[in-house]
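Entry 14. Structure prediction run on the chain below.
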Amino acid sequence: MKPVPVIELRGVKKHYKLGEVTLKVLKGIDIAIKKGERVGIMGPSGSGKSTLLNMVGALDRPTHGHVLVDGIDISTLNDNELARLRGKKIGFVFQFFYLIPSITALDNVILPMTFSGKKDERRARELLKLVGLEKRMHHKPSQLSGGERQRVAIARALANNPEVLLADEPTGNLDSKSGGEIIKLLFKLNKENDLTLIIVTHDEGICSRMERNIYIKDGEIIRRGGKCIVGGGKDENKVF
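Output returned:
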């Protein structure tokens, strides 16, 4: 029996109404992502990457088509059910960290557990140790470096033991050394925990290490897999 994809988009279209104008951002996206895969999402600014990310992460509902998480069509869920499914299945890591500045690293990791009704300080401590911050867990974000703050964000994303980790330009605000350490950590989690890893990136170093890449332009997938091209080279227009 063929395994059910952990994330699947079938004919997904997303439109936004701007006054009298309908903005067609996604124009029929089909994606199936298996458990444990490493998948890159790439494309130029304005291509629809952010909207696609919202669809893959079940943060928004499609105008047409279907988004399935572990075989469950999110269109069949109300907002509370969708929030519970998303909180259980998907972790998010963003470029700008989005940590709460007034509380410690430990409390930032505990927070999503509290929302899910399963507060577990021991697990939060273990996660911070996993990301190499066992000696920094009582520091507030302002007392941490950019790389350390991103590590806290990763620990927080793992708080509810998700099947999928979705990272949006996770190294975009980091220097090359810190960025390399973050990617190494994400790939380690993917390999050792069978964690599905989906990264939106413009970084060729990341792109080249993904199992496959999905290229999007003008709301459509224009290429799947193949040579990693992120722009700036002579072959740029062949991809984007």
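The beta strands are 7-18, 21-33, 38-42, 64-69, 72-73, 90-93, 164-168, 196-200, 212-217, 220-224.
Filed with the rest of this week's runs.
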